[in-house]
Amino acid sequence: MDREDLLAQMIATPAIDRSFTDWPEVLSNYAECLAALQSRLDQKDMERLIRVGADFYRTLARAEQYRSNSVWEDRSS
What distance in Å separates the CA atoms of residue 73 and residue 77, rounded to the nearest whole number? Predict the structure, then answer.
């Protein structure tokens, strides 16, 4: 499967309808998957997947901060 196939599959696969604030659990699930695959991956692949997880975390944390600030600003108006 190439990158485009994998991306399409991720987008099309149904997932649990979570609250926006459940993103730490999603990141924890990702870490659990990495732990299970660790013995099958070389160090370079593990480092790359960890960087992707870090990017995912920071993106979601910024989105959560933005959402929280927007909600707060709406209430203070």
Answer: 6
What's the whole-number average pLDDT of the chain? 88
Nearest by Cα to 49 from 29, 34, 39: 34
pLDDT over 90 percentage in the chain: 57
Integer Cα distance of 15 and 36 in angstroms: 20
Round to whole Å and give the CA distance between 32 and 26: 10
> How far are the Cα atoms of 14, 24, 38 from residue 71, in angstroms, in the given order?
28, 20, 40
**Residue 58, CA atoms < 13 Å, CB-side half-sphere:** 5
Residue 32 structure tokens: 């659990």
